[in-house]
């Protein structure tokens, strides 16, 4: 059996839950119970919210996303090069057969 990915919450829902804790001063446990959210999820959202105000962490997160994107592009380009090499080899073999 595969592991369930769990419930996905909208950004508005997350921001509302964070607001209940930070601005309305409700406890994390109370918000989790009232909204049916796990404590781990709520703590992740709060941590992410705190990090979003730290310029260094925001910059680091953006750089990590860029690195992931560049690695994906590199892998795609490597696949393309490999296909082109195989195609060139096939055409070169066919040219040699035609010149004989």
Overall description:
- With 100 residues, the protein is mainly alpha-helical.
- The protein folds into 2 domains: 9-53, Orthogonal Bundle (Arc Repressor Mutant, subunit A), CATH 1.10.10; 68-100.
- Helices cover 78% and strands 0% of the residues.
- It contains 4 helices and no strands.
- The chain has helices at 11-22, 28-35, 39-51, 55-99.
- Helix 1 crosses helix 3 (39-51).
- It is elongated, with a radius of gyration of 25 Å.
- The termini are far apart.
- The mean pLDDT is 88.
CATH class of the largest domain: Mainly Alpha
Largest sheet: none
SS-derived structural category:
mainly alpha
Number of DSSP helical runs: 4
N- to C-terminal distance: 58 Å
Q: In CATH terms, what is the architecture of the largest domain?
A: Orthogonal Bundle
Nearest-integer average pLDDT:
88
Sequence of secondary-structure elements: HHHH
User: In the CATH scheme, what's the topology name of the largest domain?
Assistant: Arc Repressor Mutant, subunit A
Helix content: over 70%
Number of strands: 0
The rounded Rg comes to 25 Å
Give the number of domains: 2
User: Which ranges are low-confidence, i.e. pLDDT below 50, for 5 or more consecutive residues?
Assistant: none
What's the short story on this structure?
The chain has 100 residues and is mainly alpha-helical. It contains four helices and no strands.
Topology, please?
Blueprint: H1 11-22, H2 28-35, H3 39-51, H4 55-99
Notable traits:
mainly alpha; Arc Repressor Mutant, subunit A; 2 domains
